[in-house]
Sequence to fold (128 residues):
Amino acid sequence: MSDRKVVSTPGAPGAIGPYNQAIVAGGFVHCSGQVALDPESMTVIEGDVTAQTERVMKNLAAVLDAAGSGFDKAVRCTIFLKSMDDFGAVNEVYGRWFEGMEPPARACVEVARLPKDVLVEIDCLALA
Fold:
């Protein structure tokens, strides 16, 4: 397909499975879910859900930037939480990344387990 471009950046963790960091297609950037992996060491960062959410958002920002997009062009995000008890803390960090702009549509769900046993994962769909 000529309308499909793979996005890859060293500013975010490499894929830990058979997927890409993002695909640009049909005028959208389809970002894979990001977890709290340090892009250089590929290890889960130390810290609570606040620290992990900050790392996740940095990773997403790097992928969006590599695709020529950004959070200002985000149209939908999905947040996956290990515990819904972390909803408020995650909202606080997540919300800071959208200050001064209209945030995207969003879903937030609690899941039984996430890759690498992290506390939060977030994916994003944005305009290219």
